[in-house]
Amino acid sequence: RGSTMKRLTLIITLGGLFLATAVIASQSVISEDLQSALIEADSDDYLRVLIHLTPEPDGEALMDYVQGVRASERAAVVWDYVQAQAEEAQEALLDRLYDAEQSGDATFIRSLIIANAIDVQLRPDLINEIAERSDVRWMSPLVEEQVLPDEPVREAGNELDEIDWGVNQVNAPDVWDLGYTGEGVLVAMMDTGVRYTHWDLADHMWDGGASYPNHGYDFYNNDNDPWDDHGHGSHTAGSVASDGTAGSQCGVAPDATIMALKVLSSGGSGSYSEIWAAIDFQVEHGADVSSMSLGWHDVDAVSRSTFRNHYLTMNAANIVSVNSAGNDGANQAWYPIPDNVKTPASVPPPWLHPDQPVNGATAGQITVGATGSNDAIMYFSSRGPVAWGNEAPWYDWPYGGQDQGLIKPDVCAPGDDIKSLNYTSDTGYTYKSGTSMATPLTAGVCALLKSVDINLTPAQIDEYLETTALELGVAGKDNTYGSGRVDALAAVLAVGGITETVNITLTPDYEPYYIPSGGGTVYFDAEITNTYAAATPGQIKTLVILPNSNEYPLDTYNVSYVPGNVISVSSVPQNVPGWAPNGSYQYVARAGTTPWTLVDEDSFEFIKLGAITSDEQISWTSGDWFAEGDGNVETQSSLPSEFGLNSVYPNPFNPTTSLTLNLPDANTVNVIVFDMLGRQVAELVNGTMQAGSHTLTFDGTNHASGVYFVQAEMAGQTSIQKIVLMK
Question: How far is Cα 123 from Cα 48, in angstroms, rounded to an integer?
């Protein structure tokens, strides 16, 4: 590098004169592709060239440089370091290029800081001149390529309060219930831009101040308006942070802040330069998480090495980087392993799973594959392993023979028919499929982890993601599913500092409730959240504390605290009998584990204004907290052990009385009332009833005073209670 370059000169003899044409500098500096382009170019053509300067970036040295620096300060320290290095290395060449711009020999000059490279359009003669410089180590053509495939788009409706299935699949709502929503975490989206006016994002876009009033930058068009004119970018941004304002909640981290970085055209094409410039921007402005759903096959060795250095630098800056594996799992005839996963997704992760045979170094890229709603891998999801055995200066992760290469992807996430934002409307949604969709869902999980602890390093987050993922496929980390499908709740719990517990919350319609002397009903909502990492048996016990401070038990429910589930019930009725004495009561719900250990409780007050002796609402009847079939509920109430009628009150009565019917299991039941002559006077029940204790009421308003009998029959069993109507 930097040595005197030989020159290859094509000389044509014509009429005794020597005319030198198509002068090309040494092949050791100019790539073969650029040499071919120079031969074909006219002297007044512009060729877009990527000039790599000395020294070559060293991301591993940066990792050593920031050791001991606080995580919150690393991005600023890294940016100062790489910017100073690039300014010194590029100053002389930039001066020459700016002079050439004035003379018309150069145009569009972009300095790439972390890459220590310059993206510029040059006349052929100037390319050869620059190739002679000692500060230039490599020159190649910069070609814009199509990187986003044509994806089927299915329009979606605006269902109210809907949560997309992929968000539920990774258990994000259960993390929100713990108070972690991505608030305070800045996620940079490198894509086709973002519709930043969409209702689901508008109030949590990055504030770039006067310099970046539109929440980011457009590196493709080189302006400060990263508006999405394609659709891919709005969809991926929504999967990170859509908050459901327009109807559907599609984001894993609904309070995360989005930085919009447009790196592709309206047709989905772009070059390395836009990506590297966007990475510079993220480091300079302190992003916490970086999400990108695109990549290339057939990347030249110098550029591939430069990508790896970029992600080492982001790692040093404490930025978590997530990228899609690619959608070529079914195209292995064209892109066989170890080239099935695209670059930069092929860059090593920041943490190595114990199942990975160690034959190389880490970097900073968490790669994501795609699964369906049944957690099966999608056919299109690209497969590893990948290799770095031919790229200087790494020469690691060789593949072939005894060498198994680097396992990729690292994790997987939902990527089939994912609902997210439509770029054509402030309130619209669309469905898309691909590893492009799985990646931002995973980036959203990273944002949730960062909201638990903003100082978590990329290596720590990668470890939490991989060690808590739902294992799929063969045991251990593999080249189809990686370490498994990400689980936001399990990963957040693994961060630590969150005690396994249950929290119960009661929300009455009013507080305090006032109950008239004749009795009435209190209505309330209840929610039970849990942070248990494994299904844990428990109980919910309800009771009232009477004005004399005694406890009056009501119901007991056997439940299971299931990871990822929240027990939520609404408009639960609790009857208060008229005969209850006046005074202040507390309705109490207690949550505990089995065998009974109280974990949490909540209560609210209601006030009884008086008492009567005749009561049509005679018992402390409560509505079932749980709907039949609730996955968190193993049994409803403490089931009675025997069939029968009991607890008649009042008796004698006028005009109504209530009885308790106990059913040990669900069955067809017939309950009738007959008089002393055996004549049926009323039928209280005739049909199927669920197991439990049920309150039945007989109204004697239209009947004469006297003795009556209530008879219950079920599966050949009979129970009879005598009642006395006294008017």
Answer: 9
Both tokens of residue 697?
A: 């009421």
| H or E stretch covering 584 | strand 583-593
pLDDT at 18: 25
DSSP 63: H
The per-residue pLDDT for range 414-460, each reduced to its tens digit, is 999 999 999 999 999 999 999 999 999 999 999 999 999 999 999 99
pLDDT reported for residue 186? 98
Measured CA distances, 83 to 78, 91, 97, 111, 652 (Å) = 8, 12, 19, 10, 92
Distance CA 583, CA 570 (A): 26
> The whole model's pTM is what?
0.70
Convert the pLDDT of each residue in 69-116 to its tens digit: 888 899 999 999 999 999 999 999 999 999 999 999 999 999 999 999
Structure tokens that stand for 98 in this block? 């700016």
For tokens 């031919």, the residue is 390
Q: Decide the pairing of beta strands 117-122 and 136-141.
A: unpaired
Strand 365-371 versus strand 320-324 pairing type: parallel
Q: One-letter amino acid identity for 370?
A: A
Evaluate whether 453 touches 495 at the Cβ level (below 8 Å). Answer: yes
Q: Give the burial class of 374: count Cβ atoms within 10 A of its Cβ; 0-12 exposed, 13-18 middle, 19 or more buried.
A: exposed
Residue 429 CA neighbour count, 13 Å, CB half = 27
